[in-house]
Amino acid sequence: MSTRSKIVYTLTDEAPALATYSLLPIVKAFAASADIAVETSDISLAGRILATFNDRLPAEQRIQDDLAQLAKLTLSPDANIIKLPNISASVPQLKAAIAELKSKGYDLPDLPEDPQTEEEKEVRARYAKILGSAVNPVLREGNSDRRAPAAVKAYARKHPHSMGKWSMASQSHADYMRGGDFFSSEQSFTMDKAGEVRIEFVGKDGKVEVKKTLKLEAGEVLDGMFMSARKLREFFEKTLQDCKETGVMWSLHVKATMMKVSHPIVFGHAVTVYYKDVFDKYGELFKELGVNPNNGISSVYEKIKSLPASQQEEILHDIHEVYSHRPEMAMVDSVKGITNLHIPSDVIVDASMPAMIRNSGQMWGKDGKQKDTKAVMPESTYARIYQEMINFCKTNGAFDPTTMGSVPNVGLMAQKAEEYGSHDKTFELQADGIVRVVLADGTVKLQHEVEAGDIWRACQTKDAPIRDWVKLAVTRARQSNTPAIFWLDPERAHDNELRKKVELYLQEYDLSGLDISIAGYNEAIRVSMERLIRGKDTISVTGNVLRDYLTDLFPIMELGTSAKMLSIVPLMAGGGMYETGAGGSAPKHVQQLVEENHLRWDSLGEFLALAVSLEETGIKTDNVKAKILGRTLDEATGKLLDNDKSPSRKTGQLDNRGSHFYLALYWAQALAAQTEDAELATQFAALAKTLTEQEKTIVAELNANQGHQVNIGGYYRPDQELVNKVMRPSSTFNAALDTLA
Amino acid sequence: MSTRSKIVYTLTDEAPALATYSLLPIVKAFAASADIAVETSDISLAGRILATFNDRLPAEQRIQDDLAQLAKLTLSPDANIIKLPNISASVPQLKAAIAELKSKGYDLPDLPEDPQTEEEKEVRARYAKILGSAVNPVLREGNSDRRAPAAVKAYARKHPHSMGKWSMASQSHADYMRGGDFFSSEQSFTMDKAGEVRIEFVGKDGKVEVKKTLKLEAGEVLDGMFMSARKLREFFEKTLQDCKETGVMWSLHVKATMMKVSHPIVFGHAVTVYYKDVFDKYGELFKELGVNPNNGISSVYEKIKSLPASQQEEILHDIHEVYSHRPEMAMVDSVKGITNLHIPSDVIVDASMPAMIRNSGQMWGKDGKQKDTKAVMPESTYARIYQEMINFCKTNGAFDPTTMGSVPNVGLMAQKAEEYGSHDKTFELQADGIVRVVLADGTVKLQHEVEAGDIWRACQTKDAPIRDWVKLAVTRARQSNTPAIFWLDPERAHDNELRKKVELYLQEYDLSGLDISIAGYNEAIRVSMERLIRGKDTISVTGNVLRDYLTDLFPIMELGTSAKMLSIVPLMAGGGMYETGAGGSAPKHVQQLVEENHLRWDSLGEFLALAVSLEETGIKTDNVKAKILGRTLDEATGKLLDNDKSPSRKTGQLDNRGSHFYLALYWAQALAAQTEDAELATQFAALAKTLTEQEKTIVAELNANQGHQVNIGGYYRPDQELVNKVMRPSSTFNAALDTLA
């Protein structure tokens, strides 16, 4: 059936992967009725690890490199991909996954901490490609179009999520470096013609070391910037002193998962500044033990386990002593005593800041109580927008979901545009000297004087994605008849390069009747917020990092979650990728499932994405049934929201599995009720009848086993049979679905 | 000598009036050398009272109505007026002045508190015209041009005043009504053609009462707005609860002196809400006693003096009790226990808010310590700019006088434009009903539903002043090559009427190369502040109230005082008025003079104004000597600043009189040194020589009597002979000046 349409559904990690066991059979059954095949692609962390080491595994353990296949597919006009959220692995997560796979009999090499031999270096390099934001960049062959679907927005207005009150006297704020950071050192230029550039380090002795050679396209923008380690440490110390004086709680907000090279280093500096006394005293010992502060203070706890008990006690005592003279630190888990500096993946700025703002600007202290907080975000480029929003909330009170407008986003992202991790172009410098970017002809385009420890990075942005981004912005502004603001900061060298292109490419369009403007970040967010509280929408047209940040920030204010956003990647080659659940892969959900057999993951994002995906398939292949499937799925989703059949957070109540049942019920009912395609109506009438009649039985079967521990045979690569049993416990429902086949 | 040029120097009140005794003889002596007569005009509070009641005084006590004469003069192209600051009298100040004059043998009527008879009403009406901002509106036949002179700005950059550090964790903020205030009810329209309008009150019974009839010109803008007493009181209560919860100090900021009808009522509501328990308990008694909360809680202290001691004690006890459950209130004088609600003239928003912002956002508590403060400014129209600045300081730290730019002002003010007291068009409503503004033909142009107690007011703005204001803005933008922003808020009906005119009148000018824009208040102040901290200047082109507020706010940040601003009123008829010392009339300075014979008043504003006045005279009458006098006076002023010969605040050091001596010395030296006019050089060479030689003697004579009490024979109308002796104690200096005659 080579002409059969195909939707690729990704298998990922944690909660969404578990939910897929329950949802996918429904989707496959329904889609088959329109002759659409729903295939899967395993891009889970474990899957990627195994595929990466295929050559070292015995034949029976080898798996196909699905991610590579999927990346190829994005370049085809037929691509139709449902992309679920996956883990952006930190080093500790990667290590845990390796350990689990090894325990399952996969003979994988360990992650070399400090690679020495060629082999170790090669292994390290392979693993490095799996770390952090490794999936999205290779798939995102298009820019990003994210917005709150009408049904979701209407639901939020009718059933507003809780929003913590803001006091005008709140002491909370976002603090960031005033100089010495990436923002203040950014330089940028655009390539006249295609060519190679070298990133070079020139030592004090004049010796030149080529750190990296890049092939750049004509019109490509390259930025160079660095963060001073010295100024960063001074900044951390100053924020700590400040909190000590004012009594405001200290909290660090970085993105060590995505910014997998630079931010763990930043995080490590925070750890060694906060626990300065301990690292001063035990520096040598910690080095011997292999303590890596970039992995958090937990690295100390872990590594000292090899020491005699008395010595461990002494160190723990000294760590404890630190708390007596350092300010109170925000907790990730106050019950378990897990602080903000425990591991680098716990506090992720784009999720943690909206949560704090939604929570009256407060985080939780060690006593479990909410407190005013200094949110420390060293890099000022984007931190300023949070301070702007905090000031706004102090002045105008919390946002009101029942009346506020919306801020959809059009984000520059295609072809690793502004890849904000820029992992392979980020260097922690080992000596004082100069880093420069040099053209093939020797022309120095960028140059920075740096010190040992400074973090230097370059960032590439190709021309075609920028052009496509401008087009997408104009299209969205036109289609939704909404003002659009390009967030381009006049104080950023990179943005000024982009501004020239934007102004040029905008001329290619008829802008009559459109309100399209360009503004710096503070002004852009301020104008958007002023409109927001007056019920007005404003499209944010942003670079890649702001895309990431804003598509959490505004949805969390508007909808209480970013997982309910429609997230489309119109691929530059003509296909479409539909991302779901921007809210992450929810490790806490997995924990609840394992301990209480309740999965609170909300597959709403999947429902929304599938509907658009089905509709798009219908349009492209002129498949009426596919269009009807899409439209009725949207109807079913609206009904599900209205009838409050989304998963509850509480064990014992309807969970993910139950919400899937209701989706199937409403979808079948909608298909049975439609009159456009009689065949479909007949086909689903029976199912609708069965599900309607068996509602009580099925829900009872789905909820029956909640409250008990379950075994899913693994975290990163759970056992398929076990999960299948856990996630499909209703034989009545399963049997009903089987009748469709 | 009818062709002799004339400068009119105003005699006013308090410190500047006392300083005039010392400065004027110098000015007269120097000006005479260019054949310029310096005449005086008595517009002091006492002078105005006496002139107002000329018909009731015996012939020998009658004085000329100088203010009326001066008002006439402003309509002449020859007008050249040095206008010193005068008292904007509150009711208590007016009463004190009347009492003093009576004690001096003037048989004046008392101010009737609650006029009943026709005569009482007539007396009350006469006094009403003296209250508040009564002088400026009749003199200001031109718009306002205020800026920091280059020498002053340079001095501030070199010798920065102290600026309290701002903490990002500061709890201070400005709180204002969100609805129910003038801002939210403002309506506005422009007259097509000249005509009469009636302000009418329509009672619930349908009866129509004409409150006021106004004759409006073609193109004149009329606004109507009201403040809900009920919502105002709810707002006050909410702010008090909020402070109680957060521990932030409560502070009220109004302008009861200038807004002499509306703001005392607002102030009175604050008093009766804060002291609610006391007013609830003793309401009837207080009414009998004639307690008027609009005069502050001091009115209670004053009126209960007639009660038996035990009853007084009980009331005082109950007042004391209030403090135990109300939040801490900011103090005007913590030593003397004078709170913010003591009398309405103590905390004047345009002076108190910049002081608070300069002081780390803090005011003083009853223990004399600085504390974070909720600055309560009920009317939101302008309060929002203070909150914007507070947020800005929290985010960016205190302004830095050594690097910051400047925000000069071009203010709409001529012909009582936007007279923001609008005293004769402000009504406290006695019953529920409707207030409307009706054209002669019966068309209703504005209409508000009001309740008893609400404050309704109208505000007029003529067309010609707006046109002149636009012209002045363009002129200033061109002459100083500085961007100019018209502060016109899109959410204000009045501003939207003005915007139409501004956009129209701007078309009359060649704007090429100019950066002239229009922005709402928050945006305008934000843009100005962002530029300010980057060392850039931005002209604020504002309405009358913002003129008043901003010409304190920015100068106090930039220069530490608004008294050093150059304040020019280019009169529409062609003349010029040069205002000095926007910092008020400084009652505390008088107190120090009387107690310690040290006058710390800084006449810098007078020096700057005189220099421009002399230069203008020179240009208009082609008087070279006048031009030289002006130029050399500026030189002398610069030298005085550089040599730090401004008055010290400390008794025993150089004071106002000493600074005048140095001005004369430097001025004479500059005149002697100039080569443009030999006659002038010769004439002043002798004086320069004498003053240079006698410097030590003169300064010793000037400072000799400091540290002792002096008697000036009155506060509002001191004895001329006595003041003359006190202010001119150096016989050596006096004799030297006499040689010029």
TrEMBL record, chains A, B:
It holds the Pfam family IDH. It comes from the Bacteria. Its EC number is 1.1.1.42. Belongs to the monomeric-type IDH family. GO terms for biological process: glyoxylate cycle; tricarboxylic acid cycle. The record marks 255, 420 as: Critical for catalysis. D-threo-isocitrate binds at residues 146, 547. Keywords: Glyoxylate bypass, Magnesium, Metal-binding, NADP, Oxidoreductase, Tricarboxylic acid cycle. Mg(2+) binds at residues 350, 548, 552. PANTHER family: ISOCITRATE DEHYDROGENASE (NADP(+)) (PTHR36999:SF1), ISOCITRATE DEHYDROGENASE [NADP] (PTHR36999). One of its GO terms (molecular function) is metal ion binding. Binds 1 Mg(2+) or Mn(2+) ion per subunit. The keyword Calcium does not apply. This is Isocitrate dehydrogenase [NADP]. Its cofactor is Mg(2+); Mn(2+). Coiled coil: none annotated. NADP(+) binds at residues 83-88, 136, 584-585, 589, 600-602, 649. Substrate binds at residues 133-140. It catalyses: D-threo-isocitrate + NADP(+) = 2-oxoglutarate + CO2 + NADPH.
